Amino acid sequence: MSINRTQPKTPGLALSVLSxxxxxxxxxxxxxxxxxxxxxxxxIQVKGGSLYDTVERLQRQGLIQPKETEREGRRPERTVxxxxxxxxxxxxxxxxxxxxxxxxxxxxxxAALAFMLALDKDEVLRLLRxxxxxxxxxxxxxxxxxxSFINQGLPRVVLVEGEYTQxxxxxxxxxxxxxxxxxxxxxxxxxxxxxxxxxxxxxxxxESIDKEGGSKNHDTR
Length: 221
Hints:
By secondary structure, the protein is mainly alpha-helical. It has helices at residues 12-23, 28-37, 50-60, 85-100, 108-114, 121-151, 160-184, 192-219, and strands spanning 64-70, 78-83.
């Protein structure tokens, strides 16, 4: 059987399914409950029937396979899945790549920073302060959740993704506070005249590069 080893753009849910099935065979509903109980919804998206779609796709790829069906009372039959050898290999391949290689993920906040000059300075300051407050609330809420998991006896090794998220949030909040201070200061936020000069500089620079490129092409003929 040929296995499609192309890593999906968002392998999070597939990683979760394969990792859970390494622990033990289970049906999709049990997978969903464990994802929720472990707080993994903070780092992977589980929307609507996306989990069931992922299970079907992994089965088509030969990475998991049905083991048995079970029924509890009057509930519909549930298919219990198990991971295949190919699934174990694929999971390890994904994890090795994701752990070792930083990925460029095109964060939306970075895009907003790149174009924030379309807004007034005072509005940008207000929005950045609002974002900082929201991040601080997320940090407080998730820290309480992490503490509750630890108090329940969960080992830290299964909570490190939450700790990582918290560290990223704290770093972002600190950086935004620093940026706010710079925007509030003198000389950071450009005037309209400075923006016009910047546009003119970019146009002149582009024309110079184009001319230089044309000259080199002419010399090589």
